Amino acid sequence: MDLGITGRKAIVCAASKGLGKACAMSLARNGASLVINGRNAETLEDTAREIREATGADVLTVAVDITTAQGREAVLAACPEPDILVNNAGGPPPGDFREWGEGEWVAALRANMLTPIELIRATVDGMAARGFGRVVNITSSAVKAPIAELGLSNGARAGLTGFVAGTARALAATGVTINNILPGRFETDRLRSGFAAKARSQGRPESEIEAASRAQIPARRFGRPEEFGELCAYLCSVQAGYITAQNVLIDGGLVSSTM
Fold this sequence. Notes:
Strand content: 5-15%
Protein name: SDR family oxidoreductase
Radius of gyration: 18 Å
Family: Belongs to the short-chain dehydrogenases/reductases (SDR) family.
Helix content: 40-55%
């Protein structure tokens, strides 16, 4: 299916690996030109090379921390009029809420709520003036089913979700859509590091932790990043123009809910 985004300009944040990389690859396969961001310049360039070789797409890299004002300015200078914005940033570490002070909360809010809001603020009016825009925020299944040890993420991402609920509807008549994708457990470095941390804290083999986690998923497997990327690309398509202000779970059935 032709998604109708050939020649569209896309910003994909935190795209050097994991789900961000998968989104960038899928958008490139569907004809978009990319500005991708990541903090590690070498890893980012490797990803850009891989995408170019696989798709032939134009890929520009901006190695900055997107959670800083300077980082956002650099990315927007590289792509001042994006048609597509994929917001993404690494989640805050797990822990006990009793151990988090104001500094930890501010960092979580900056990364997972304020940064995407700032990028949305900087881009959606231009999208609306051109009559087409797609914003996809990568959040978490924890927005619907909070995880106690991920309280920092739960709080920050829930704040972004509330913001999007109103803003997306206010823009719905302009040709701009804003949606959130809520990933469950995907085969990424973050998932693996979480297993390793839990194994250390509980004194159990990492393989045991992984098997127990997989068994909780009705699909009996972890998600593949490319599956996530394809969903992102579809939400950025012309066909998805009537989908906005939604929180789309992609979790193999893990969250047990009727809505």
